[in-house]
Design a protein that fits this description.
By secondary structure, this protein is an alpha/beta fold. The strands form 2 sheets. It has an 8-stranded mixed β-sheet, sandwiched between helices. Strands 3-2-1-4-6-5-7 form a 7-stranded mixed β-sheet, with helices on both faces. A hairpin with a 5-residue loop joins strand 5 and strand 6. Helix 1 crosses helix 4 and helix 7 packs parallel to helix 8. It is elongated, with a radius of gyration of 24 Å. The relative contact order is 0.10.
């Protein structure tokens, strides 16, 4: 079978979460921490599988039932871990995956929020050269194990679980089968109170939002927009300047945003800014569009649900004018029936998915339409109930009917295969 058919997410505990002598969170706090770590891990695992051919994500849960798990984490594949100690449950999960036709099985826990899609890709790559792969945890255990043969489940037998000797004993067990294991980067997991600061840092990084704004002579709009964005405290704001001759750079500096000079063209500008962005989530925003005050939280809640490839805000016009309501209803209908929001609604997605699709096509027009159509193959495109307010200037300047008909003509031309370069002359 192909490289990776099943990626198991094991929700069982690799060790007891906190020692009796040092409990800091209490039962509710520990449960909330586990909820956050599970959301982060499952979201990243889904993102990896969504962009990896033949990869399948399975959640092996303990307690509750599949219906409750699906209600919490979304429409994924859920199986019960079953009874037994950790070794027996790992053995069962691996054999189930191999029995389903997997050529490689990667099992991870949910207590290592530092593990990203890059780490999962590294594990799969390593299996091409090593039959067994471990991701070492800083406490002597491991956060990941990858296997390539059903017979390798014997390395789960007779391991001193919940001790600092787990990894060493597991490596010895792999060698006993004739396989020298590969070791990935060592990452911190969460077992003891002393692990909490690193976990907090990792969880914070997993929720960061980078705002990317393509601009060309947008100083006036940026002077209005940037204070509101700063008030919401996103991870960073990057202005991708395609050659402005106004005060765009000065305004950007005044409000503490990052400024990057790029080639002209919205697709090229957004790609250049995304290349230096460091947030977990990317938000692509037009300079004349205002967002809800709590937009970072809306983005996090939307994208933390596995199966959601991207999101956008409900379209609203900031300045009312005759016929504006019809435009808003038409956009809502398009989003509901076609899952096709446009860039003026504030498009957001995981950075890993953005680069898996190699960014925006660098067209002179319709780069957002082409990109969203590719995104739809990966998962749901969600339009939030919260609205983004977009300037009505183009509708008012050119007339509602004229602008609408021009848009429809351009879209029809694109659907019939006319190049974006040619369509750009129809604007």
């Amino acid at each position: 079978s192909s490289d990776l058919d099943v990626s198991e997410i094991n929700l069982g505990r690799w060790r007891e979460p906190f020692t009796p002598s040092g409990v800091r969170l209490g039962a509710e706090g520990a449960a909330e921490l586990q909820r956050q770590m599970t959301r982060v891990t499952v979201g990243r695992a889904w993102s990896y599988c969504a962009t990896t051919p033949s990869a399948i994500l399975t959640i092996a849960y303990e307690g509750g039932d599949a219906a409750l798990m699906r209600q919490w984490l979304g429409p994924l594949d859920f199986v019960s871990q079953g009874d037994g100690d950790l070794g027996q449950r790992l053995r069962r999960a691996a054999l189930r995956a191999f029995g389903s036709g997997a050529g490689r099985v990667v099992i991870i826990g949910t207590d290592c929020p530092s593990l990203t899609e890059v780490g999962l890709a590294a594990a799969v790559t390593a299996t091409h050269f090593h039959p067994v792969v471990f991701g070492p945890a800083g406490d002597g255990g491991y956060y990941l194990v990858a296997l390539t043969q059903p017979s390798q489940v014997s390395l789960f037998d007779n391991i001193p679980w919940s001790t600092a000797a787990v990894l060493a004993a597991s490596c010895d067990a792999a060698r006993a089968t004739g396989h020298e294991p590969a070791l990935l980067a060592t990452l911190p997991d969460v077992d003891e109170p002393a692990d909490l600061p690193a976990a907090e840092t990792a969880l914070h990084a997993a929720e960061t939002v980078s705002v990317i704004i393509p601009a060309l002579n947008e100083a006036a709009n940026l002077a209005r927009l940037l204070p509101a964005l700063n008030a919401a405290a996103p991870h960073e704001i990057i202005i991708a300047d395609g050659g402005s001759t106004d005060e765009t750079a000065a305004v950007t500096a005044r409000f503490g945003a990052r400024h990057v000079r790029t080639a002209k063209g919205r697709g090229a500008q957004m790609n250049a800014a995304a290349a230096i962005a460091t947030g977990e989530f990317l938000l692509f925003l037009h300079a004349d569009t205002d967002l809800p005050a709590a937009f970072p939280d809306i983005i996090r809640k939307t994208l933390m649900i596995p199966g959601t490839a991207a999101g956008a805000f409900t379209f609203r016009l900031r300045e009312p004018f005759r016929g504006g309501g019809l435009i808003e209803k038409g956009v809502a209908l398009r989003c509901r029936t076609c899952s096709l929001p446009y860039g003026d609604q504030g498009l957001f997605l995981r950075r890993s998915l953005f680069w898996a699709l190699q960014g925006f096509p660098e067209y002179p027009i319709l780069e957002d339409v082409a990109f969203v159509r590719r995104l739809r193959a990966l998962g749901r495109i969600v339009t939030t109930p919260e609205a983004a307010l977009t300037s009505s200037r183009r509708w008012q300047q050119r007339g509602m009917l004229s602008t609408f008909l021009r848009h429809q003509l351009i879209l029809a031309g694109y659907a019939f295969g006319i190049s974006p370069q040619r369509l750009a002359g129809w604007r």
